[in-house]
Amino acid sequence: MFTGIHVPLITPYDADGEVAFDALAKIADHVLDQGASGLVALGTTGEVAALTPAERERVIGTCAAACRERGLPLTVGVTGNDTRSVGRALKKLPGGVDAALVTVPYFLRPSERGVIAHFEALAEETPVPLMIYHIPYRTGQAVSAATLRRLGAHPRIAAVKYAAGGVDQDAVDLLGDLPDGFDVLGGDDAFVSPLLALGASGGVLASAHLATDAFAELAAAWRAGDVTRGRALGHRLARLSAALFAEPNPTVIKGVLHARGLIPTADVRLPLLPASREAVSQADLVAVHPGE
Ligand SMILES: O=C(O)C1=N[C@H](C(=O)O)C[C@H](O)C1
Hints:
4-hydroxy-tetrahydrodipicolinate synthase; lysine biosynthesis; globular; alpha/beta; TIM Barrel
């Protein structure tokens, strides 16, 4: 299920600050038609924390329709640091959801044994396969390769979105000895190419709103062992990701999509602030020929 590039969609807003569901549907169709292997709804990029429960439900429905039409998977972000409430949220996921992206418990900083107990409890009750979201610079929680390997051996834990802020020793250790049926997806846009080179099967990349086809080609090149193409493309796309992440995600991406007429406004909800004009025009420029 988890190969190729999965795009964690932004949430576009109209001039009144309401979610622009028609624009969301168009972006979903666009990235899937450009070669994305699936969508992720309600990620950080989708400003999930700023959405009401009703908006979240409609976002899932909109993304599910686009995926269903093409027979591609929809993953939905489920965030929380209390095992029971995350379990309840998983059980409430509507039809049309194929997997859940579940953050390592944040802020609380349980032990790694606690992290294992958390995911093993969730894996026993989840209606859909789980993708662990490992992002220690946001959660504050270390998770070793040994812990991920143990969790990856569980039949209901299908993948990890690996976002350690670089290619660390645990990434090398994990990718050198993966449990059967457990996929690693790069979750730090700038480091996806080296992770693919080590054996990751794809990525969950906000940058792939732009140049989706080039990101899909990057994943395919590394899978096919085409080092020359993978390396060259990886360097170019890393420059695009750097430009898109020059200010807090997803502000620059929204700025570029708006400048290109793909969403009605570049607005974000507080505490995010819109990206500067300079950051948007620089990223727009880099995005024009990312694959060459
Ligand atoms: O929402 C996501 O999923 C992602 N969020 C990361 C972030 O906001 O830092 C970036 C990554 O591309 C995917």
